[in-house]
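pinging the channel bc i need a second pair of eyes. not urgent but kinda urgent?? the chain im working w is below, pasted from the shared doc
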Amino acid sequence: MTTANILHQICVEFRKELSADELVKLIIPLYDKHLTHPEIKELIKFYETEVGKKLISVMPAITAESMQAGQQWVCSFTPIQTKSPSQD
């Protein structure tokens, strides 16, 4: 069995154990916590527009690129040099 076959089998087994419904049940309370029902209805209207549909399609790329930019930003800071007690 190749590595690709093993990884595929792991993914198949993993998907059997997971349910998107379970994830939705975990996420709904987050939306309830931060948004009102009328606000959610407005969001639905927005996501049905052409701009909303485009945002949905590009959001994964924006999120990934934002994470990369954040990592680069953090790495741009040079570490603060500290003296060890033995250097005093």
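so The CA atoms of residues 82 and 88 lie 11 Å apart. and The mean pLDDT is 86. — does that match what u expected or am i reading it wrong
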